[in-house]
């Protein structure tokens, strides 16, 4: 059964605009990143036909399989990497993505910096913060954010635009969004990637500039 992607997109965009108004934030400050991971090109096309241009994928290889073709067919696609990055995929990631949300350790920062230098192509970068300090989750621990941002800047010469988080599944998300906002403000960062299908409206009052919404647009994914 295929989801009504165009209708879902419209619903989500309306909800984003409503949350912006309620939070007295300027209309349009929040970018919808439509998370198309696990969905194939035929399932993504209705979103492109409806005018959506910003998409998120969590695996480099999967994105390489479907996006070059879609980009040939549709102008102005902006592709975001929202999943963990391995350093042996840094070259491919820098070549394919416009924004990388998951810079979270020196090894990755160094590899991405080297590729930006080598390719002369610079995706915008977010640092992922493990706001819930979950053992199994990627991201920099909150206490290490300032130091990691400093080394991105000074050691690797990277420009970081913002912070990203994935709150723990069982926690109320708002305190995590507030924490991410606090760290961004303290470090003079303008962008915040936070909020998914279940909680994007809660992220907007805390200054989300990018919400990452998948299943509410494309339908439920098979369990990994
Ligand atoms: C899959 C994914 C999303 C989208 O999740 P939904 O609940 O389907 O909206 C957002 N962010 C990241 C990092 C993801 O991996």
Descriptive overview:
Helix content is 42%, strand content 15%. The chain is of the alpha/beta class and 224 residues long. The protein contains 9 helices and 8 strands. The mean pLDDT is 97. The relative contact order is 0.16. Helix 4 crosses helix 5 (106-119). It binds pyridoxal-5'-phosphate. The site of pyridoxal-5'-phosphate has 14 residues, from strand 8 and helix 9.
What is the mean pLDDT?
97
The ligands found in this model are: pyridoxal-5'-phosphate
Order of SSEs, N→C?
HEHEHEHEHEHEHEHEH
Biggest β-sheet: strands ordered side by side in the sheet: 7-6-5-4-3-2-1-8
Helices, by number, come to: 9
**Major sheet summary line:** 8 strands, parallel
* pLDDT < 50 stretches: none
- Percentage of residues in strands: 5-15%
How many E-type strands?
8
Outline: globular
- The whole-angstrom Rg is 17 Å
Helix content: 40-55%
Euclidean distance between termini CA atoms: 19 Å
Structural class: alpha/beta
Distinctive features:
224 residues; alpha/beta; 8-stranded parallel β-sheet; 9 helices; globular; binds pyridoxal-5'-phosphate
Secondary structure topology:
Layout: H1 5-22, E1 31-35, H2 41-49, E2 54-57, H3 60-73, E3 78-81, H4 90-96, E4 99-103, H5 106-119, E5 124-128, H6 145-154, E6 162-164, H7 174-186, E7 191-193, H8 200-203, E8 210-213, H9 215-218
Helix pairs in contact: 4-5
Bound molecules: pyridoxal-5'-phosphate.
Pyridoxal-5'-phosphate is lined by residues 35, 37, 58, 82-83, 166, 196-198, 212-216.
């Amino acid at each position: 059964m295929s989801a009504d992607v165009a209708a879902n997109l419209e619903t989500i965009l309306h909800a984003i605009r409503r949350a912006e108004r309620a939070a007295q934030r300027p209309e349009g400050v929040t970018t919808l990143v439509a998370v198309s991971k696990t969905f194939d090109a035929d399932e993504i096309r209705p979103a492109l036909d409806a005018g959506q241009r910003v998409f998120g994928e969590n695996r480099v290889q999967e994105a390489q399989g479907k996006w070059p073709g879609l980009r040939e067919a549709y102008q102005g696609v902006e592709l975001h990497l929202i999943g963990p990055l391995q350093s042996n995929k840094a070259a491919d990631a820098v070549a394919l993505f416009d924004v990388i949300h998951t810079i979270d350790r020196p090894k990755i920062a160094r590899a991405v910096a080297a590729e930006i230098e080598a390719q002369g192509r610079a995706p915008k970068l977010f640092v992922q913060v493990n706001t819930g300090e979950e053992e199994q989750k990627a991201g920099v621990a909150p206490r290490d954010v300032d130091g990691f941002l400093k080394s991105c800047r000074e050691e690797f010469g990277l420009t970081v635009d913002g912070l990203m988080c994935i709150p723990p599944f069982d926690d109320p998300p708002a305190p995590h969004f507030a924490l991410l906002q606090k760290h961004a403000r303290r470090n003079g960062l303008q962008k915040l990637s936070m909020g998914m299908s279940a909680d994007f409206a809660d992220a907007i009052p805390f200054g989300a500039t990018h919400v990452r919404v998948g299943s509410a647009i494309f339908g439920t994914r098979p369990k990994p």
